[in-house]
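Quick note —
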Amino acid sequence: MKDPAVVGIDLGGTNVRLALVSLQGEILSRRERATASMPDQAALVAALAADLIKAGEAARDRGWEIKGAGIGVPGRVLPQEGRVVFSPNVPALNDCRLVERLAPLLNWPLFLENDANLFALGEHWLGAGLGHDHMLGITLGTGVGGGLILNGRLWTGAEGTSGEIGHMTVDPEGRKCHCGNRGCLETMASAFWTVGWVREQLAQGASSWLGELYAADPEAIQGETLVVAALQADPLARRAFDRVGRSLGQAIAAVVHLLGLSRVVIGGRFARAWEVFQSPLQEELHRRLTLFPPEAVSVCPAQLEDDAGLVGAARLAWQALEEK
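Predicted structure written out below.
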C-alpha cells in the first residue's frame, strides 16, 4: 500500500513552485519553472497540468500516492468556485476557472486559495505560529497581504477575502492606494510605496548613501536595496523602516483589540529587515494596545521563509481531504 501525499503549489509572479508533501508536512520533492515561460492562460494551464502529471508519476515511482493538491495564487480568488478573479502578479490568471480547467486532466481533487492565506496556514502548521490557534500572518512584499487563523482554522469570511490587513486605514489623510482607498497600511509598509517615499526624500536632499549610488537613476532603487541599506545602518533606509514598523504596530493593535490574537507572524522579502523595524513596531503596538497586557500577543518573524506558501498549500489540501 502506497503512502499518501499531496502537492503544494505556490504560483507566483516570478516562479511556479511545486512540492510533494507528506501528511506530517515533510517536503519529499520539489520542482520549479519560471512564470514568464507561460505567457498566457492556455500555456499556464497546460504547463501546470504537465507538471502535476509528472509529479504524480514521480510520486508513484517513489511509493507515494497523491491524494490532492492545494494551489496558492496572489490576488483575489473564489475558493468555492476554484476561480481566480484577479491576479496582479500573474495577469494570465485573471478570470481563470483554474480548478475547472485542471480537474479533467487529473484524477485527484484540487483546492484553491489566496497566497497570503496559505502563508498564514503554513506558519500555523509548522512555523512560527505553531501552537497559536488565534494568529495573523502578514506578508510584506510589493504589497501587504494577510491571513487569519481563528480557532485553529483558516478564516476567510463571508466573501472569502478576510485578512486583508494591507487595506486597513492607518492614515485617513494619507496617500491614495491602488485599491481606491486613502491611507491604507500598504501605502506605509509595502516595498512599492516605501521605495517611492525614499525616492521622494532623496529628491528633497535627504542624507543617504543611496543618493550617491543612485543619483543617475533613482528608479533603480528597489525593495531589496532598502533592506540591505537598512541593515547597513543607512539613515534614510532606517527612517523608512521606522515608518514601516510604526504603521504595522498601529494596524496590528487594532486587529488584536478586535480578535484577541496571541501571535502575529511577519514574512515576505521586505520583512528581511525585521531586526530594523522590530523595535518601532513593538513600541507602537504596546503604546496602542491599551486593553491587553504587552505579553498577551507576540509578534515574530516567519520561520518557513520561502516554503511557507508551499507548506500552507499542502495543509489546505490535507484539511480539505479530511473534511470530505
